[in-house]
Design goal:
Radius of gyration: 14 Å
Shape: globular
Strand content: 35-45%
Number of helices: 2
Order of helices and strands: EEHEEEEEEHEE
């Protein structure tokens, strides 16, 4: 199935993966967790223990106003949803989410909260 892969310090990119649990777990480096942050019929799939395992912070998830609502640790991917199953993305969804997560981000803890800085992508 066609997904958008988002790795720390790299530009998001479309990839083809097998549609099975083993392939998804291998991609994120552990047990998977679904995080349906988006209004589209897509979901974010990440390592469910990414933060507690100390995986590198990867990308911020923002609300409609641009406010950070969460930060994903470790590699994750965006895939489609059909009913209760994961599915491949449409070409339009690939373009949208590849652009959304194009630039890597660095995170700095400050007394006022986490500061997020967008970086130039490494292709």
């Amino acid at each position: 199935m066609q997904i958008v892969l988002v790795e720390p310090n790299k530009a998001a990119r479309p990839v083809e993966i097998e549609d099975n649990l083993h392939a998804m777990q291998a991609l994120v480096g552990g047990y998977i967790q679904e995080a349906p942050f988006f209004r589209d019929p897509v979901t974010l799939v990440c390592n469910e223990e990414g933060k507690i395992s100390g995986l590198p912070l990867n990308r911020a998830i923002r609300d409609d106003d641009g406010k950070i609502i969460d930060v994903v640790a470790g590699t994750f991917f965006i895939c489609g949803i059909q009913g209760e199953n994961f599915s491949g993305l449409t070409e339009q969804q690939i373009q949208k989410y590849q652009q959304m997560f194009r630039s890597p981000e660095k995170f700095i803890n400050t007394p006022g909260g986490i500061l997020c800085i967008r970086m130039n992508p490494v292709i």
